Amino acid sequence: MFSRRGHLTLAHNDSSLRTMRWRAEVNKASGVDSEVIGPADIKKLVPFMDTSERARYPILGALYHPPGGIIRHDAVVWGYARAADAMGVHVHQDTELTGIDVEQGRVTGVRTNRGSIATSVVVNCTAGWSTLVANLAGVRLPIQTFPLQAAVTEPVRPFLDTVVVSGTLHVYVSQTDRGELVFGASVDPFASYSTRGTLEFVEGLAGHVLQLMPSLSTLRLLRQWAGLCDMTPDFAPIMGHTEVDGFLVDVGWGTYGFKAGPVAGEAMAECVATGRTPELISAFGLRRFADGSLVGEKGAAAVGH
Amino acid sequence: MILIPCPWCGSRDAGEFAYGGEPTPRPDPRTATREQWRGYLYLRNNVAGWTTERWYHRMGCRRYLTVQRNTVTNEVRQP
To answer: Which CATH class, in words, describes the domain spanning A2-72+149-217?
Structure first.
């Protein structure tokens, strides 16, 4: 499930190198193995990388996180679903939510295309359609939906062990166990629910990848796809209670990162079981937008904003 | 490729435009409550389907225009 292989976040200018140093120190203070390395050490880790000064955006250094790696996220999600199923949780696939019943500001049930369920608690933990689901309960969310595209190449022999991310070039590259290179970038430039890939995206992506590793120019792309990202104004998720009693949200994860999922799930479970908001997620409430106390953590995702 | 119908330049590639998003009427800052003002700043309808939105022809005539777009299919038409 988890392939540990080291993670590099590249710095192409003085200010991002300064940010990398700062991040490395914050990480170290939290007991995380993380350091800033120079172009020579980057070249040792990734021999195919153009670390020369001739590059359009020369690489000045990188934040190196040796324990970083790749998680088979789909397998992890199915693992959770199976474990929940074994513990007696009902998972209804291919079931569309058509309505949420609210009486006097309290949730009383949900309606689906396969029947109704009476309940006093509903947790909206959808992605892509979170605003549409919240609207059914009469709750408005400060979220806009943007497609996030990615692409893979044909499989080749293993040559890239580390995960490489460049915020300046808006690109990340890694190689799967099957040998395919996985490329990704930032979200599309306009809001949409469309999950079709675009030529504009792969053109830009390929250009940026080749600036990092020019020798990949003969590789062929195998496929590309898009997923929906729910983006909040401060790029941080929204968790906890809403103004409708019994209607909770765990939404707006956008590009925030998969790793926070399990602990967010635990905190949400505590929310449901006790009716109180755990300290850990108290800063992520829906009220923060009306109160003007946004979360300032733009660096949480692999690709910056 | 998505074509945006610019009333001045004709149909042009969406890459020439900057996305302006759905129009949000600005409340009067002298009379708006904090709630209304922050709603104006942050809340959007995020419609799945036909919606009216603003685009800016940054690589063309540099004017703002209004178009209708289906956010599910990315089909575009004149309002």
So the answer is: alpha beta
